[in-house]
Structure prediction request, 962 residues.
Amino acid sequence: MYLELDEQGPRYAQLLRALKSAILGGRYPAGAKLPATRVLARQLELSRNTVLAAYEQLRAEGFIEGRVGSGCYVAEIAQAPSAPPKRRTRPAAPLSRRGQRGQDMYDRNIPGRQHKGVRYNLQYGLPVTNPALSSAWRRELHYAAARAELDYPNPQGVIALRESVCDYLKRRRGIVAAAEDVMIVTGTQQAIAFAADVLLDEGDTAVVEDPNYQGARQALLAQGAHLLSCRVDDDGLVASELPTGAAVKLLVVTPSHQFPTGSVLTLPRRMELLAYADAQRCFVVEDDYDGEFRYDARPLAALKSLDSNERVIYIGSFSKVIFPSLRLGYMVLPPSLRNAFVAAKWLNDRGCPAIEQAALARLISTGAFERHLRQTSLALKARRAALLAGIKRHTGNHVQLADSGAGMHVVAWLPRLTHAQVERLIENARARGLGLYSINPYYMRKPSRPGLMLGYADLPPADLEAAMALLGRCLRELSDA
Amino acid sequence: MYLELDEQGPRYAQLLRALKSAILGGRYPAGAKLPATRVLARQLELSRNTVLAAYEQLRAEGFIEGRVGSGCYVAEIAQAPSAPPKRRTRPAAPLSRRGQRGQDMYDRNIPGRQHKGVRYNLQYGLPVTNPALSSAWRRELHYAAARAELDYPNPQGVIALRESVCDYLKRRRGIVAAAEDVMIVTGTQQAIAFAADVLLDEGDTAVVEDPNYQGARQALLAQGAHLLSCRVDDDGLVASELPTGAAVKLLVVTPSHQFPTGSVLTLPRRMELLAYADAQRCFVVEDDYDGEFRYDARPLAALKSLDSNERVIYIGSFSKVIFPSLRLGYMVLPPSLRNAFVAAKWLNDRGCPAIEQAALARLISTGAFERHLRQTSLALKARRAALLAGIKRHTGNHVQLADSGAGMHVVAWLPRLTHAQVERLIENARARGLGLYSINPYYMRKPSRPGLMLGYADLPPADLEAAMALLGRCLRELSDA
Prediction:
């Protein structure tokens, strides 16, 4: 009997694997006597103790019987099916419908930063790097790690963090909420996934803005929602056009700063939207993903602050304003939904990690978080100004800006180009080290004019200026061609 | 017009809230002129600047029109529905079926440590406190926080951690897996929730052991699974009794250390279980929640190591062996399921936090994790010995032990008592500062004899000895009564 060791890990484990595989594969049939330990040791150039230990373990696991050292026999176990796995071509058990939908979406849309490695990457969603925040975060993590609860966390979230969130929302977003209304989640994505779980059965109708945040759309589609969309203009969602035929169960909107167009939902439309939700008896998810950053005025109050009938599920994320790999966000829930959402969290993951929650609570309560927001706001304002100046200087009359004075990106419409030309523009720019992104993926129906999402959070002003010079050059080349 | 300020937060924000609420409530109808800022300032004893700022913000948000300082009028907005919210008694939109099932379970089973605060709490699931681990963890967190990727994490998990998990599994659990087979999740609960999501449609059949881990059962029931169970005896799951009538799509088992009875699945039954899965074309979730801790022998290899037909989804958790509030675990996935599970993770939460993953990868690769396991094993072994000695000394012939020499708890059967007596025992013990837990909640059909789950991880040997003395006293009182 020839045993091949796979040279991975300790010799003892290699031998054990080889022996098991020989037994399971039928090379040592039931009742066969194993070679004497001395013989095998010499043959494989192992110490006899190694062989003894492997035999002992085989015996402990029930593969062999007898006394190690005198005579061991392969036990009467049901050996592995004799057909080798390769031959079996029948498909494995099918996925659930939801599992299949999710996999199809994922296969079409492998995540990852598309233009990673280019010199100027204008990808939306990259965070502002703030070394002061990084050290504050490190300090708070270290502090919290010594003190946080080690036992299972409260699924709804650490109370200190929920209280900090309430303070913050009252001060900055006009929302009056109690800690019991707040649930800590891993971010916007989980919040929307839970909303889909808790409120939508397969085939139920949900409405999103068009264009919209892909992650939200995908979570609803994975759940099996029948998805309708509503147009957006410069005043945000056109609430008068919300669908009235179907029984809508959920609306997902971005009133403070429509994603991705940047428009701000006007007050009359906010009221209209709430009246619609009340008439439809449906819930509204308000995704306030960057309502924090406005450069020309104080941030507008959230839709939630107008919600007298408890129709609005407010969601906020710390990922955009701290860093995306943090994975913490929150929901403000209407009382009627609180238990159902906490149950969803509890069934899904038992609650967010306690140390990070405690660290974040202190980051907020010590004021470091708002200092970071102020610093980030200033940095973003300067970056935005550099980007806009660069566009003005370098792109001639190609670009029509949709400028809402908020957020971490602007949309540059290119009304004089075709969609195909913009695709070429993106390719050419990439070859020159400039990462550009079409706005098209956010649309359910292709927009009438092509446009670019210009994310500016991650680049210093000088780079943004240089990036716009490059963009200008690419645009000229395209016109000349 | 009388405006009442709510005394919460800055005066400016109080005034803004009060004015909005007056406008939305119809107390200032559309077209009404707001009081002059000087007048309002005097009336409310505010500075005029505060009033000016509030008016400016109202104008920015579209509530009023005109020029602040000369004359402002309430805008023609759709005011809040005139019916006060209290009157509206019709129910809100219904939950989804899944949302309703989850809420019902949660309402019945509010989580939380039942006997928190008692002197000796024998709750299963409390972690071993290890100060050396706490400082190692703090150190690694601090190190990782300075270096981890800030951008969105890989939804499948940080590669360094997945590689560390593979090394660990090869060395300790006999599983040969590549990093691409591993997905990092927040723990056992999320792993099982994803398995339900990806593999079960509403009404599909799943099989669990009886008794079983509640969290797994609840995740399957929330998904709408038709749940069957299979009996467990001293050799683990009775594989020959697995249901053959229905088309089973998923099995959830604990072969290394049946939860909660502690029995270990024998090799012939492991082979039988795998053959069953292959015949049924279903998948098997192997929940290896504490396979790590065996005191009388080397840990048995995992079921996954015998899985030549890629039917087994292996799940492991760091919560039990590090601390529960960490929220990190992992799955080893068959290649055919990998994309569907990564998609589920991506749609649910985009991936686990990067800093913690990087810290854990280093905790493993530096050897600190296995040092902790060794220390914990020694501590658990001593605690277990103290518990068993205490039982022997103090509980007479009341207790029949189910002892598998593994894990973090033992089951004490009380064959001479009725279920009602054991309920009284638990109450009496609690009054004396001893937290005891019935094994009943883990059973789908009430077991023929009552039993207690004795978790010993959290208490030093002397306390366990004292706790057993108390148990003995409570047992005697019960017999005397």
About this structure: DSSP finds 14 helices and 16 strands in chain B. The longest strand of chain B covers residues 226-233.
